[in-house]
Amino acid sequence: MRWFKPGEGILLVLGLIPVAIFLLNHWPSPSTDPVVWFRWSGRLVGVVGLTLLLLAALMSLRLPKLDLMFGGLPRLWRIHRLVGFMGFVNILLHAWLLGFATVTQGRTLSLAGLFPDVANWPIWAGWLALALMVVFLAPTFQFFGRLNYQRWKRLHLLSAPALVLGLIHTLPLADQPLVWWVLGALSIGAIVWRKVLSPHLGRSAWEVAEVRQLKHDVVEICLKPLGEPMRYMAGQFVYLTPQVPGLSAGNREEHPYTIASAPSDPMLRLGIKDLGDASHALQQVPPGSRVDVEGPYGDFYLRHYPKRDQLWLGGGIGITPFVSGARAMLDDQTDASVHLFYLSQDEYRSYYLDELQNIAVKQSRFDITAHHFSVQGAVTVAFLEEHCPDFRDREVYLCGPPGMMKHLIPLLKRAGITGNAIHSEVFDFL
């Protein structure tokens, strides 16, 4: 099924184990006392909350090919954020429900139960865990506005001590502590790999061979491997970490970029637009510079449906996965046909248009239609029908700026294309 991936099934099973153990050992006997139900509900949501947060931490493990079990890293990251948010809410409910259960005992006993003597360290470990969760999780959900990318990454380092404190709070009270030891070890191990080991063991060394200037603010960086070449599929992306001390910004910072080359190309080509300090600095990276690459990640073209005709809609620097796909079609003798709509503000902003039109001449299964907003206005259903009459029967792939995506997805759905046939790629806090 398109909406349910194998990795999600594994996480579901792992998540149900501690909850099932709690329910088997603590199913409440019938009672009219609301305090009993508040206390039981508080413990239940606490188990659910900690389980979800541990699973969210486990999903932070970033390994090539592992993300394919979840339909690609962007999808995995969306699930990670949703699970983390649900876990955070359940932990807040845990504290609120247990606090409410003590209200009937009077203020003195209630405060003593919530804030006991320092010797009762498991309770204080729980409060410290909650405080750290507020610090590193609340900004992630943009409660205080959009967060700076690098600041967000630094805040996430607090996840490890928060989870350790959460386990310290839980283990003395657990019926089957082995379950929490295993989940905790897997989750903390994932964080240690991601933050400590991966920068040294999970990356390969490359050299900048050429920097092609496509437009004044867009370059294609060509990389040659200093070791084993990378195996990847069209439409995937990598994390690029420059090791260039003289770079004006972004040195030793990792950022995701989509691969623009075909898998058969001995070079790894990345299309990069000047959209921030790091990407601005890469516009002038000198040939011969050393960079580290981690990946590949993503499953944009969803190879589970290779024989289904496809409709591609790309704009801005979001055209790069389609450039990779079109270049790959020169080597791929697939029976599926592809129609690409290259959407841009004007002809000047069509970075790869000439090359893509040449590919269309050589590959009969590939067609391209250029659309310039400044001349033709926004894309309409009539325009799609005119140039690709069967567009409703195709698998649809979109990548481009937010405004383009906001316009196209509702338009396609109104045209009768179901949501599970529409695929998009968004690098949001990857």
Plain-language structure description:
- The chain is of the alpha/beta class and 430 residues long.
- The protein folds into three domains: 196 residues, Up-down Bundle (Four Helix Bundle (Hemerythrin (Met), subunit A)), CATH 1.20.120.1770; 94 residues, Translation factors (Elongation Factor Tu (Ef-tu), domain 3), CATH 2.40.30.10; 115 residues, 3-Layer(aba) Sandwich (Rossmann fold), CATH 3.40.50.80.
- The strands form two sheets. A six-stranded antiparallel sheet has the order 4-3-6-1-2-5. Strands 9-8-7-10-11 form a five-stranded parallel sheet, with helices on both faces.
- β10, α14 and β11 form a beta-alpha-beta unit.
- α5 runs antiparallel to α7.
- The radius of gyration is 25 Å and the shape is elongated.
Helix/strand layout:
Blueprint: H1 6-26, H2 34-58, H3 73-101, H4 107-114, H5 121-137, H6 149-155, H7 159-170, H8 177-201, E1 204-215, E2 218-225, E3 237-242, E4 255-258, E5 268-273, H9 277-282, E6 290-297, E7 310-315, H10 320-329, E8 338-344, H11 353-362, E9 366-372, H12 373-376, H13 381-387, E10 395-399, H14 402-414, E11 422-424
Helix pairs in contact: 1-2, 2-3, 2-7, 2-8, 3-5, 5-7, 7-8
